[in-house]
Design a protein that fits this description.
The complex is a heterodimer of chains A (107) and B (121). By secondary structure, chain A is mostly beta strands. Chain A is built from no helices and 11 strands. Helices cover 0% and strands 50% of the residues of chain A. The relative contact order of chain A is 0.35. Chain B is an all-beta fold and 121 residues long. Chain B contains no helices and 10 strands. Chain B is globular, with a radius of gyration of 13 Å. Classes of the chains: A mainly beta (107), B mainly beta (121). Chains A and B meet through strand 4, strand 5 and strand 10 of A and strand 5 of B.
Amino acid sequence: EIVLTQSPDFQSVTPKEKVTITCRASQSIGHSLHWYQQKPDQSPKLLIKYASQSISGVPSRFSGSGSGTDFTLTINSLEAEDAATYYCHQSSNLPLTFGGGTRVEIK
Amino acid sequence: QVQLVESGGGVVQPGGSLRLSCAASGFTFRNSGMHWVRQAPGKGLEWVAFIWHDGSNKYYADSVRGRFTISRDNSKNTLFLQMNSLRAEDTAIYYCANDPCAGNICYSIYWGQGTLVSVSS
């Protein structure tokens, strides 16, 4: 099973600050890494697919990069509505797995 | 727009069974693979199962294999999850999600609002 390790677990950030979340895979997964945002009491929402591909309707301040085992989600100029938990997810190998999540709090 | 509406959750005793449903609309259901993903209270996401667009292939997490069965009725645009021999650790919100790929696993695009399954005596 591919283990995805996210860091940090928690981040408290002021508006307009830049946020960087990393996701490390226990073995190479190519570009088969996707990012989701989950706000309290809501279902997850797809932000980035295949490491760096943007999703229609998702604000351009969200971007992704990486390949192989190391991936990054960047939120440029954080807004209050970005308070949420962010998960990485790999679809390279079965069983599909998710990272443990990174909770982003707005100061 | 895409809508996925789960139902069938509830409280069940250990060892019991439940059947979850997911009604889909707003996309071509018969062309999409479908996932079930769960989330225990206050915890992260756990993938449960995936089914190909035509139901010909199914994949399961080790934690549910042999107890859960994923299926679909393309004539009714509905996905199912039959859950047997339920355990306390199956307590979670269960989400269905669609996948843009028909005969392969790509990623989950849209998710339903989830249905809560609580296994307790």
